[in-house]
Structures are given as C-alpha cells and as structure tokens.
Here is the input.
Amino acid sequence: MDEISAKPSAIIPSGAASLRTMTVTMTVMCYLACLAIGALILINRAVDDWTHGISREVTVQLRQISNVDTEAELLKATTLLQSTAGVTSVEALDRKASLKLLEPWLGNTNLDELPVPRLIRVTIDEASPPDFEALEKNLIANIKGASLDTHRRWEAELARVAHSLTLLSWWILALICGSAVAMVVFAARAALDANREVVEVLRLVGAKNSFIARQISQRFLITGLIAGCAGILLAAITFLGLGSTGQAAGNGVAAASFSLLFAPHGDVFSTLLVVFAVPLIATLIALATANITLRHMLKAAP
Amino acid sequence: MIELQRVGLSYGDGPKILKDVSFKMEQGDMRFLTGPSGAGKSSLLRLLFMALKPSNGLVSIFGHDTSKLGGSDLPLLRRRIGVVFQDFRLLDHLTTFENVALPLRVIGQKPDDYRRDVMDLLDWVGLKDQANAKPQILSGGEKQRAAIARAVVSKPEILLADEPTGNVDPVLAKRLLHLFLELNRLGTTVFLATHDLSLIKQAKGRALRLEHGTLKDETL
Here is the structure.
C-alpha cells in the first residue's frame, strides 16, 4: 500500500470553475490601479515642486513711466527690498533678461522700442516671510511704477488643478475597486455553481457555511495575489518604457516616470510602499468579497 | 431520538409522497425500511437527515423540530448523523482515504489525529489497499464500503443508510450487516432502507414497510 500523503488534497478541486478569466481581468485592473497611483504620486510631486518654487519667490515689477529714471527707481527698490525683514536675496533682472522672458510670446523680433517693465526677483525666507501687504504699500509709496506680484493667484490655480486631478485619480481607483468587487461576486457565484455537488456533500457531512466558503475563497486569495503582482510588474514596465523613450529629449512625463522607479526622490520608499499595497488590497478585495458572497449564497440556499 | 408525527411530504404542488407517517426510535434501536421502488423510502431518509422539511406534521431529531432549525444548528446536528447514500456521493477528486476522512476534516481534525483511525476503518471494510485510489477506479462494492466507512468514521449517534448492500455480493452484504449490528450493539441508532428482505430476516429485525406513501410496522 502506498503511503498516505501528509497534506490532504484541496476539498474544492482546482480544475472546477477556472478563475483564469478573473485572473486576467483582475491583472488589468491592478495595472490600471498602479497607473492611477503612479499618476497621483507624480501630480503631488509636481505640484509640491511648483508651489515650493513659487512660494519661495516674489517678483517686483517696475513699469516704465515717462520722465522717470527707471534705473534709479530700480536701484531704490533693490535697496528697499534688501532692508526688508524676511527677504533673503534680491536680484534685479537687466533689460536684456527681461526681454528674453518675452521671447516665447513675441518672438525674436526687435523689441528695443517696447516699454518692457523691469523685474526684480526676490527670494524670501519661507519660515518667516515678509508682511506682503506692508511691503506692497511701501513699494507703491516710495517707488514710482512699482507693483508686487506674490504669485499667490498662480499658486491657488495650481492647487485647484492638482486637487481636481487628485480627486479624479481617487475616483478612478474607486471605480477600479468597485469593478473588482463586482467581478469577484460573479466569479464566486460561478465557482459555487461549478462545485454544487461537492458543496452538497460537505453540507451533508456537517460542514458549516463558513467552512465551505473558506475552502472556495482560498482560491480567490491566490488569484488576487497573482493579479496584484502581475499588475505591478506591467505598470513598472510601462513607467520604465515611458521613462526611457523620451527622457533624452527632455520630456517631462518621461523624466517623471523614470523618477518614479529610480530617482532617489525623498519619498521613494513610501512610493514603493503605496504601489506594493496594490496586490495586498487586490487580495483582500478578492478574499473578502468571495467569502461574503459565498456565505450569503450558502445561507440563502436550501 | 427520532420521532415522526403524522408527517406528510409533497414536492411543490405535486402528489403526496408521504402521508401521515408516524414512528419513533429511541437510542440503540435498529429499524429496517422496506417497500417497493418509488414508495418514498429515499424521501423519508432525506427528511431524517434534514435535507428536506415536511409539508406537514412533525419531524423531531434529537428533540429538535427540524422545520424550526436555524442555519447554524443544522451542521451541528448533521455531525451526529452518519448517512450512506444510495449513489454513494463520494468526491471524485479525493482519494478513498480522504473521502472517508471528510467528516473529520470538516470538524477541524488534523490528518495526524485521524490517520490511524481512518486506516483501521478502511482495513475493517477491506479497502486498506485502496486508500490512495480515487473513486473512479473503485468497483461498485468498493464505493459502497467507502461510503459506509465515511458514514461511521465520526462515530455518529444515528446511522441512516439507503440500500447499503445494493451493490455488494451476499458475502459482503452479510459482513456489512454485521458491521451495522455491531454499531447498533455499541449504542448507535440504525435505520436502513433496503429491498433485501433476506437481510432483514438475517438480522431478525423490525421493519417498517412503506407503500403508496403510508407506513406499516411489521416483523419479518
């Protein structure tokens, strides 16, 4: 007589009700979830970088006014700014630099005749910034043609766009989770139908519904794990592909995609942690949904 | 232990399969159920292992009215009943050993805890050499013995069997009868549905005859 195997066979046969279709669909969902998470991380990083740059600087603009020596006003403004608390550096752009800023809009034509405003780039101490309201009043009172641009309008606009994109990403993630739940419900029903005979025998030998549900849902656990890992792998290949195709050409999306995988960004560890949560969440969704659905169906069955 | 009072059964709006069936069995009783095909023997057994609820009347098992049982009580009561099905109901993907051990696995026992008991039982029913065989390669008689072993492996208080000797030769039928008698001697309440009148005569047993859905008590 052959030895009895120490590990008994699975009570639910693995061949019945193949979960192959579900594994493929779940993989696609995990892949989309990884892309959505990647996009979410990139948006947040970009907005952080932009708003950090914007909030670190303010610009003082000097309009050219007839009969006013703009260069003298520029010097006065620079001195005033240097003596203001909270200002760390002041850099007056020369006329050439100011004209260069207009080139993208007006082209390379002769702009010498234009009354181009002069700009002063002011770097501020983020920890204790100056009183912008008082500074603006001071500038207007003492410097002819001066105005202060704190970039707050742009910052607010950027924050609004970023907020909308973040909400959109979360909404996509929620839709993916919802679709995954619906798919697991259908697959669990199909698995129960395909194993009706086994389930009947288990019930007749005294198995509780929780025991039967556990036996079937164990297969969903493996499916969720495989799909989650495959989704991550596909997403990593996608980001790698995006990163390597356009980075040399200075493509921003490419650089950002590449940085998601390799760049020693400050929070690369937390990024990886978030992405690796995908297989975990996929497994939990598959397992919990299958278990709840099966218990519900078994309870309703005669 | 088992009590039926004026039990009627019909499937949906169909004709009555059982009419006013009443009988009672105490612990340690042994009864045979006989009658022609289609008389309702299997339906009566299905009522007793709570796969069906009566259309009217009372079916009481271990003092519980089966029509009032909740979903969580049913498995616990079924664990106290062993059933041998006419069509065996062995699971094709499990070995003979695993099929027989199924009721123990369901209650959470580990293979190390039940391996010896199950092997002893397989030896007793003459299937030790087939322990690793799947049901597809077992003969009808071997399947029958595996089904009986599965029904008794958890030492149930009640044993219900539907034609338990229907697929075996007279020698094995006699051996199985002795198994049932032995279980009954040890205190198990045994209820066997069979066409085989010689089996009832050998056991000098008390039989209930089911005909056209009604029950008559007789001793052969």
